[in-house]
Description:
Pfam families: PIGBOS1. The chain crosses the membrane at residues 6-23. Keywords: Membrane, Transmembrane, Transmembrane helix. By secondary structure, the chain is mainly alpha-helical. The protein contains 3 helices and no strands. Helices cover 68% and strands 0% of the residues. The protein starts with a helix and ends in a 6-residue tail after the last helix.
Amino acid sequence: MGRNFFPAVFAIGMGIVSGYYTFQPSFQELQIEREHSQRPNTTAGQSADQKTAAANSPQTPTKEDANAGTDK
Length: 72
């Protein structure tokens, strides 16, 4: 049993290390996305062109806006 124990532990350890090394960049990106999505109304990641485009874009009318002039 002692002979077969070391290769199995070594294989498991190498699998854990390679999985960590492989997926670490993806986990870091997910963490950054979560941090940015939790901040409401932030424009930190937008360029000046995106900010002005967002400010100048017309708002879409809602259902309440369409029914504002009618009396029921």
